[in-house]
Amino acid sequence: WKKKCKATYRPEVRIFEGDEAINALLLLKIGSYAWNKLYKREVWSADIRYPKGELYEDVRTTYKLFEKVQKVVALPEPKYYYRRTGESITGNTSICNKVHSVLARIDRFNALTDRYPEPRPFMLKDIYRFLPELRNSILANNEKEFLLYQEEIQRVSDFLRLHEAEAC
Hints:
The chain has a two-stranded antiparallel ribbon. It has helices spanning 19-26, 57-68, 95-112, 120-129, 131-140, 143-148, 150-162, 164-167; strands at 14-17, 71-74. 48% of the residues lie in helices and 5% in strands. The longest helix is centred in the middle third of the chain and has 18 residues, at 95-112. The protein is globular, with a radius of gyration of 17 Å. Helix 3 (95-112) runs antiparallel to helix 4 (120-129), helix 3 (95-112) packs antiparallel against helix 5 (131-140) and helix 3 (95-112) packs across helix 7. By secondary structure, it is mainly alpha-helical.
């Protein structure tokens, strides 16, 4: 980030098999990022692709790939160095960026919580973790941008009302 370099090292190779792999993903023991994964070609199919024109496409897709594999291996040392800049998606504070960050997690939550109930509370906390950023972007940006994303903001609000009791 900017001129600082930070790498996360793990002490050993970690192996996740079956549902343990998707649970590790949903419990954030493995990130959803596209840039730090290699997949066998046969895991991809016509119905599993990164959605074009979508932000946070990795959050919307990685879990689908993990559901198809028998084993996930996480290596202990970094093999890829990712440079974050102020212009990157991670540095963007627009309402568009922040609302899509939350919606990608809501869509993943809705798609998976019936099949994987154990990480459900953690996934809900993960959604709530991004709400302050969304709130700040709404307050910092102009009314015109707010109106452009009013439907998406309403979807987030509806989800929060639906799960209000669970989140407390």
